[in-house]
Amino acid sequence: MRALTWHGTGDVRVDTVSDPEIINSRDAIIKITSTAICGSDLHLYDGVIPGVKPGDVLGHEFMGEVVETGLGSNLKKGQRVVVPFTISCGGCFHCKQQQYSACDNSNPVEKQDMSATLYGQPMSALFGYSHLTGGYSGGQAEYVRVPFSDVGPIVIPDHLDDDQVLFLSDILPTGWMGAENADIQPDDTVAVWGCGPVGLFAIQSAIVMGASKVIAIDHYPNRLALAKQLGAQTIDFRETDVREALMEMSGGIGVDAVIDAVGMESHGFAIDNMIDVVKQKVGMGFDRASALKQAILAVRFGGKVSIPGVYGGMSDKWPLGAMMEKGLQIRGGQTHVQKYTEDLLAKIEDGTLDTTFLISHRLPLEQAAEGYKNFKEQQNEWTKVILKPGMEN
């Protein structure tokens, strides 16, 4: 089959690789109909996530048709399904708490050492996201093997198009959980750093949850325009002192909640960020956390900090004093996708949530490398890229 594979920093290619096969009884094989490039895929593309090997198949946002099932799968051939990017067994302690992204059993034992050393405990498994998270092949391909297929995939009714539901795989529940972790109250003013796909869905979710004011922060005009279209007020951080503007927009006390939808590759010319850029490039550090540090300083005393943005390693110059002295509540983590998919599918069906407004490009799978390059280098215009296996070039 054809699949998008990683070959080094900035080097991805569509290669011919072996077809996936049923290995365990709970597996299913999915024929991919739509798959997206995620902002966190760019962390792999940029070489800042450890544990990726040449030839690895990328992609963790995908959906398609069930074509083969193991004896333990509850899926049926011909069903259309969206597959969560988190691989979860459904039976361990964490899965039973609906903490699906902390599953104890999905990451094979032989893959656990690196994340156990980094984080104190091994990570759960994810599709197409390095051997740190199990080394599973991703869904930017014609076919994919889905382990624990009786726990993850959600069956999609025929009257909904792929474009309406594809993002149930990751960025929609990630944005929703990002807003939920901010514990939004009806009178809250919420600031969101980053108007990429997750940031835009966090903005939309915060508005649906009843925030009285949502403020979007970015520097790409088109992405800020999309945020404004959703109902947010906007700040261009290259033209405005963000903290000063937020104090003014929140009556002088600071915003009630902040959401960092940027993650480990922050932009900006603050001296700490410029040092982090150099350290990341020479392999002395994983994370550029400038946006998160700015968010912690901007939130009010007793405020709430939500972190859906991806971080992988270490960061220094951390504002520990602000975190303690301001009495902040801080929540983050990989998304417990399976916890949210059914409710969010209902919100798509009844029109509460629009999931299509941010799609800028649809490409054949064969043009995936072009999609990655432009999604990274032309972020103003390329807001979200969907790859379609079988689509004509």
Distance between the termini: 17 Å
Q: Could you list the spans in which at least 5 consecutive residues all have pLDDT below 50?
A: none
Largest sheet: 7 strands, mixed
Residues in helices, as a percent range: 25-40%
Beta-strand share of residues: 15-25%
Shape: globular
Order of helices and strands: EEEHEEEHHEEEHHEHEHEHEHHEHEHEHE
Q: Overall pLDDT, averaged?
A: 93
Q: Specify Rg, calculated over alpha carbons.
A: 20 Å
Number of strands: 17
Offer a few descriptive terms:
393 residues; alpha/beta; seven-stranded mixed β-sheet; 13 helices
Describe the structure.
- It is a single chain.
- Helices cover 28% and strands 22% of the residues.
- The mean pLDDT is 93.
- The chain is α/β, with parallel strands linked by helices and 393 residues long.
- It is globular and about 60 Å long.
- The chain has helices at 41-45, 93-96, 113-119, 162-165, 171-180, 197-208, 221-230, 242-249, 271-281, 290-298, 320-325, 337-349, 368-377, and strands spanning 2-8, 11-16, 28-37, 61-69, 80-83, 86-87, 125-126, 143-146, 154-155, 189-193, 213-218, 233-236, 255-260, 299-307, 329-332, 361-364, 385-388.
- Helix 13 (368-377) links the parallel strand 16 and strand 17.
- 50% of the residues are buried.
- The strands form four sheets. Strands 3, 4, 5, 8, 9, 16 and 17 form a seven-stranded mixed beta sheet that branches. Strands 12-11-10-13-14-15 form a six-stranded parallel beta sheet, sandwiched between helices.
- Helix 6 (197-208) packs parallel to helix 7 (221-230).
- It has 13 helices and 17 strands.
